[in-house]
């Protein structure tokens, strides 16, 4: 079950719009350099090839224009940002099928990325931030939905970099920050409390897990890691035991083991 609704932090809509377009541009430029041999390589996403993954990224972003083209039917948002990460797992099978179909139908990835980029830019140019979108998981404002697209873009940028050593697609700073913060806030919503402090410098610090609330000095339970490691943990790309064993995360205190709370997204 998703967590109870909780007030979330706010994001600058103009910066998030720019971040989505910038990160999509980073991916587009990198995908354009890939050879057929590289596109046929496997990824860490089950049976997805790099070609499938590259096609999926356009699908994840094109939902912006698809949703904006639909009539605005909802009267108010029905899905909050903190609820969104917990809605993805049930749709994984359908998303995989759609991804394979899209990749098979669009052998020319350059044309697919060009078309997607043009549609997104055109649809966003005239759309207000408070426009309600009827997404598959519930109505959201455009401003909130664009924050979820930073998660899709950053997570799948990391998937591409993992599949092609040396590709090194850069991360737009605002996109990486928004992705990190949303997933950190989702953890705090899933395990409300104040006994454990999770630090993901330089972007996020959250309090979570039931227990004695810390108020002064060094917290007794502290978890600290870097943004990409956190994102991999939150999305199941990396397990908690492996992250601790590889010293990618530091955890001190009896309530600092987050293994039972992760991943947040399927």
Question: In summary, what is this structure?
Answer:
The chain has 266 residues and is α+β, with helices and mostly antiparallel strands.
Question: Can you walk through the features of this model?
Answer:
The structure is a single chain. By secondary structure, this protein is an alpha+beta fold. It folds into two domains: 13-174, Four Helix Bundle (Hemerythrin (Met), subunit A) (Up-down Bundle), CATH 1.20.120; 191-261, Nonspecific Lipid-transfer Protein, Chain A, CATH 3.30.1050. It contains nine helices and six strands, in the order αααααββααβββααβ. The protein has a four-stranded mixed beta sheet with strand order 4-3-5-6. Strands 1-2 form a two-stranded antiparallel sheet. β3 and β4 (204-208) form a beta hairpin. The radius of gyration is 19 Å and the shape is globular. The two termini are 13 Å apart.
Give a topology summary.
Blueprint: H1 13-31, H2 36-39, H3 50-69, H4 92-105, H5 109-125, E1 132-135, E2 138-141, H6 142-163, H7 173-190, E3 196-200, E4 204-208, E5 222-225, H8 227-234, H9 240-245, E6 249-252
Parallel strand pairs: 3-5
Antiparallel strand pairs: 1-2, 3-4, 5-6
Helix pairs in contact: 1-3, 1-5, 1-6, 1-7, 3-4, 3-5, 3-6, 6-7, 7-8
Shape: globular
Major β-sheet strand ordering: 4-3-5-6
Domain module tally = 2
Low-confidence stretches are 1-6
Instruction: Write the CATH homologous superfamily of the largest domain.
Output: dinb family like domain
How many β strands by DSSP? 6
Helix content: 40-55%
Helical/strand content category:
alpha+beta
Report the span from N to C terminus.
13 Å
Largest sheet: 4 strands, mixed
Order of helices and strands: HHHHHEEHHEEEHHE
